[in-house]
Amino acid sequence: MRAPDRLASVKVLVIGGGAREHALCRALSLDPDVTALHCAPGNAGIAEVAELHQVDALDGAAVARLATELEAGLVVVGPEAPLVAGVADAVRDAGIPCFGPSREAAELEGSKAFAKDVMAAANVPTARSYVCTTPEEIDHALDAFGAPYVVKDDGLAAGKGVVVTGDLSAAREHAIACGRVVIEEFLDGPEVSLFAITDGTTVVPLQPAQDFKRALDGDEGPNTGGMGAYSPLPWADPKLVDEVLESVLQPTVDELRRRGTPFAGLLYAGLAITSRGVRVIEFNARFGDPETQVVLARLRTPLAGVLHAAAVGELAALPPLTWRDDAAVTVVVASHNYPGTPRTGDPIDGLRDVAEQDAPHAYVLHAGTRAEDGRVLSAGGRVLSVTATGSDLAQARKRAYAAVARIGLDGSQHRTDIARTAAEG
Ligand code: AMP
Ligand code: GLY
User: Fold this and answer.
1) Domain-located, residue 54
2) Mutate which of 142, 276, 282 to test ligand 1's pocket (most atoms within 8 Å of Cβ)?
3) Other residues' Cβ atoms within 10 Å of the Cβ of residue 220
4) Helix (H, G, I), strand (E, B) or coil at 195
5) What is the mean pLDDT of the chain?
6) 224 within ligand 2 shell (Cβ under 6 A)
7) Are 154 and 112 within 8 A, CB to CB?
8) Residue of 268, 271, 287, 330 with the most ligand 2 atoms within 8 Å of its CB, for mutation
9) 211 in ligand 2 pocket by Cβ < 6 Å?
């Protein structure tokens, strides 16, 4: 009999085309059970490990048709937009196991107001908040909490819909521009991203990571999708994962099942470790980017069997995950002007140098890139996620920045302080 975490053989289709999907494809390509790996739409880096296909990732029928044609035994949906659009439902309706929550369960990410409602029902600790739609409600909420103000667009905004500011008029302006908006109390303390794989009943937490959301060194500048990440977190309480499983992850999964909309896929808890305990900042319904790059760099268990077990409701039979002792760091190289409208179409140099001189400890995961006439060009805001492992964070960090230094991309930007404080202890 096969071990429950081994599939024997499976063809996998990954939906998406960022560095998170490159990290997923890289891990799947290293899994001996994966006999064919496809990605749609992918990017120039993913093309090296998977066969690329063009498909509208938001069109569930088209994704299901492609998966059927490819005889995929597992579809993995990376980004939130297709999940919120119901792509995982369409794939499952076609009889193909899919890793990713239903449209209804993905509302946990799609609507911050819905997430707050689920947390209230499940008694999950989070910031106190108001959902506002009128200027009067907005003024009342801003006044109730005081500065610093935390103002969040209710809908999907790729990490850019949140404004945290001490400036009342800036807070008010953003709130009014959002339409429906969540205004909440400010949470202080370090942030942690904790991912869990779930089949709707059983919850398997991964290792925690920390993301760097602001554009500039020292946590200055605007919020972005994430400029870098590291794992493990040497400063965190060793009991953190168990505590969050018990107080946050399991109750949330149980509440969604109770509502008749079970959440199966990746539940991402964005947490603040405050002086009064752990609080949920946000939930996402998919792997985080760039945290996935460092979490998967450390996962020893082959990935396909884990994702498949979640997709078919068999997580309870999965043996415990195993992890490498290594630390991992990833540094995002972004285009000129990101997170504003980025400049794209610039050639990227040095990729071969990293492959020849830094592998296997450091490697480049592609985000917004495309190939043209044998060259790799920038094609988005976050362009590359340069990832490295080492015996500790200091070594992983050194290797990641050595690889970043080999990359040439005109006008590009990256933070120089990813994992610095944690590495220094
Ligand atoms: P979100 O999209 O909800 O994760 O918010 C993006 C970023 O804004 C978070 O990673 C935090 O850095 C910050 N943020 C969000 N909510 C709060 C809060 N209640 N208190 C302090 N910072 C927050
Ligand atoms: N790293 C933040 C996110 O994936 O939403």
Assistant:
1) yes
2) 282
3) 9
4) strand
5) 95
6) no
7) yes
8) 268
9) yes
Domain that holds residue 344: 327-423
Strands of 237-368 (E only): list them: 265-274, 277-284, 327-334, 348-349, 362-366
Report how many domains make up the chain: 4
pLDDT value of residue 112? 85
| Cα of 348 from ligand 1 centre, angstroms | 32
CA angle 170, 176, 177 (to 5 degrees): 90
Are residues 301 and 332 both part of a single domain? no
Give whole-number Cα distances, 1 to 274, 302, 420, in Å. Answer: 47, 18, 47
Longest dimension (CA), the chain: 65
Tokens of 123: 């008694």
* Residues of the chain by 3-state class (helix, strand, coil), percent to 5: 35, 30, 40
Distance in angstroms (rounded) separating the CA atoms of residues 183 and 153: 9
> What CATH number corresponds to the domain at position 270?
3.30.470.20
259 and 153 within one domain: no
Using a 6 Å cutoff on CB, does residue 107 contact ligand 2?
no
Say if residue 349 is in the same domain as residue 268.
Answer: no
> Mean of the pLDDT values across residues 172-197?
94
pTM above 0.90, yes or no: yes
Measured CA to CA, the distance from residue 79 to residue 93 in angstroms comes to 20
**226 pocket-lining for ligand 2 (C-beta < 6 Å):** yes
Where are any strands of DSSP class E within 81-169?
Answer: 98-99, 129-132, 149-153, 162-165
222 class by beta-carbon count within 10 Å (0-12 exposed, 13-18 middle, 19+ buried)? middle
CA 416 to centroid of ligand 1, rounded, Å: 22
Asked if the model's pLDDT at residue 390 lies above 60, the reply is yes
Interatomic CA distance for residues 371 and 331, integer angstroms: 22
Among all chains, which residue has been given the structure tokens 């805001």?
381
By CB neighbour count within 10 A (0-12 exposed, 13-18 middle, 19+ buried), where does 307 fall? buried
CA of 248 to the centre of ligand 1 (A): 17
Residues 180 and 209 in one domain: no
Structure tokens at 138: 């907005």
pLDDT digit string, tens, across residues 336-374: 999 999 999 999 999 999 999 999 999 999 999 999 999
3-state secondary structure of 119: helix
Burial label, 108 (beta-carbon count in 10 A; 0-12, 13-18, 19+) = buried
Ligand 1 in reach of 323 Cβ (< 6 A): no
- Do residues 45 and 106 make contact, with C-beta atoms less than 8 angstroms apart? no
- Name residue, tokens 């794989």: 197
The label of the residue with tokens 């492992």 reads 389
Question: What six digits make up the tokens of 225?
Answer: 């999708």
